[in-house]
Amino acid sequence: MPEVALESNIHRVVEEIAGHGNSDTAAIREPLDMQSEASGKAEAKSSPEEEVELKELKDLEKSVEKIANQLGELNKELTGIQQGFLAKDLQAEALCKRDRRVKATIEQFMKILEETDTPILPENFKDSRLKRKGLVKRVQAFLAECDTVGQTICQDTERLQSTNLALAK
Fold this sequence. Notes:
The protein has 169 residues and is an all-alpha fold.
């Protein structure tokens, strides 16, 4: 908005100096008009086909968020188990269940990766390509987190088993 005020002030000053509205003052307005026109083109709608792709990607993003929330909950539960909020005799079973849930989560993320990779997007679908690239990176980051959680579960299970073996002897 300051540009509009500045432009109108300049226009008024030129009129006062010249004594009348000059057609040359249109040159002052021209850069602003060109800016507006350029931003209008940037905000132009994508093609209907690309809109469909963008909607599908948005739906996949929502799915990723839901799965990521499940992963966050799983991580909290694992932290609780590690901090001893569960009786020792129940920990092995709980870790086993968490391990299955991590594997199911990995499977869900892999399906989403497969769905994002399936459509072949034309070169001119730049928004869709960018959105898909960002989605793939997020899913890969969540998969890395799943791997970390899975490794932690395995380590805790091994630690628990070795403790149980030591107690049995």
